[in-house]
Design a protein that fits this description.
With 96 residues, the chain is an alpha+beta fold. It is 38% helix and 32% strand.
Length: 96
């Protein structure tokens, strides 16, 4: 069953965050994920949206999603994101 990662990211240090962006795809491409959307200006239809970037990623299953996000190489890279932004990240299970 597909799994989706949704990330709401509020970038506070663009220079430091760019270090994260620079290494992201090289690591991400090693896993079975598919980048569905990266948007800095989503259309808000209800409520408030404070994130400066919203990301939607699809994986074949939560096992693959966790293989990527828990990998040592991604966790090392993510230190730049942790230092440069506040993030809310969830894994959602697909319907079928």
């Amino acid at each position: 069953m597909s799994a989706y990662i949704v990330a709401h990211i509020t970038i506070e240090d663009r220079a430091r965050y760019s270090q994260y962006e620079t290494g992201f795809m090289a690591i991400f491409q090693k896993y079975q994920g598919r980048m569905l959307s990266v948007d800095e200006a989503p259309e808000v239809i209800e409520g408030e949206w404070h994130a400066t970037r919203t990301v939607l990623i699809e994986f074949p299953s939560s096992t693959e999603a966790h293989a990527w996000i828990d990998s040592s190489e991604y966790q090392a890279l993510a230190q730049h994101r942790f230092a440069a932004a506040r993030s809310h990240v969830v894994v959602l299970q697909g319907l079928g």
